[in-house]
Amino acid sequence: MKRSIALFVALVLVLLATFALAEQYTVGIGQFAEHGSLDNCRTGFIDGLAQEGIVEGQNLTVIYENAQADMGITQQIASQFAAKNVDLMVGIATPMAQACYNAADGKIPVIFNAVSDPVASGFVNADGINAGMITGVSDALPVAAQLATIRVMLPDAKRIGILYTTSETNSVSTIATYKSLCGEYGFEIEEMGISTSADIPLALDALLPKVDCLSNLTDNTVVQALALVLDKANTAKKPVFGSEIEQVKNGCIAAEGLDYVQLGKQCGIMAALVLKGEASAADIPYQIITEPSLYVNEAVLASFGITLNEELAVRAHAIQ
To answer: What is the pLDDT of residue 18?
Structure first.
């Protein structure tokens, strides 16, 4: 009996020593706003790390903060991460990623997630080389696919309205892409800029009479106010096209969008390389998720009397 107890104690001590020697990581995750796509990025990121053996509660401590789309809080969160000297910062959405990159000051690696234009955001040089100790995955929207789908679903439409936040570089660059491609599909783009969510009601009142539909970006301020956008657009009998599945679940008619869980997971895998010392964030090329999926809200389709043609129906992921 004494021998068994001694062996058991020895085994416990070995396990404790092994656990103590195992590498422990602390990661600061800053999320700019509270909405489905960004939440999915965070979920996917944790899953990606776990896939690579870095598991929250075992060898990973996560410090998670949400800025609720407040730029002042965004800066505070990033500064807090830097002061705690985390092993890695994660910035979900462009404003948060920019704040983390500035606060890290080249001393802490940064992974960006859900950044539409890494070059315009200052993370990547024009030649494609990382600007510093930062890398990540871009959620550049499949604009051509979106325009093609809108054209099929609304064959008589002429003008697409886009509401955006003027301070979000990802929105500004995406609108430029819309404008460069819209003529190929017989559309004109009518954009309306806002500074804060308080500007949205009047902006919509001015924009909706000029357009046949709205196309939502991944603009964080606008997405947070999606219920208001949908309410006004539906009253005006103008369909709203989203940019990812969560917007379609919440009432947009359709979206040629990205899988934000997969986006986050890819970031988690990249982050694991950095944490394990297998690669530097400065040397890992940023990635782009390029394959869009078509999501449609069947109830909203029916309310507008729209039936998908065979080509779209085959690809569509229907949301009930």
So the answer is: 45
pTM for the model stands at 0.79
User: What average pLDDT does the segment 31-56 reach?
Assistant: 94
216 and 72 in one domain?
A: no
- Beta carbons of 67 and 92 less than 8 angstroms apart: no
Instruction: Please state the separation of Cα 2 from the chain's center in Å.
Output: 58
Which H or E element spans position 138? strand 134-138
The answer as to whether 109 is a domain residue is yes
Sheet holding 287-288, edge to edge: 60-66, 25-31, 88-92, 110-115, 134-138, 287-288
| AA letter at 295 | Y
Q: Does residue 314 lie within any of the structural domains?
A: yes
For residues 123 and 265, membership in a common domain is answered with yes
Band of the pLDDT at 4, cuts 50, 70, 90?
A: low
d(CA 46, CA 126): 30
User: Beta strand pairing status for 317-319 and 240-241?
Assistant: unpaired
Q: What range does the domain containing 60 cover?
A: 23-139+260-288
For the chain, helix (H) and strand (E) counts, in that order, are 13, 13
Structure tokens at 316: 């569509």
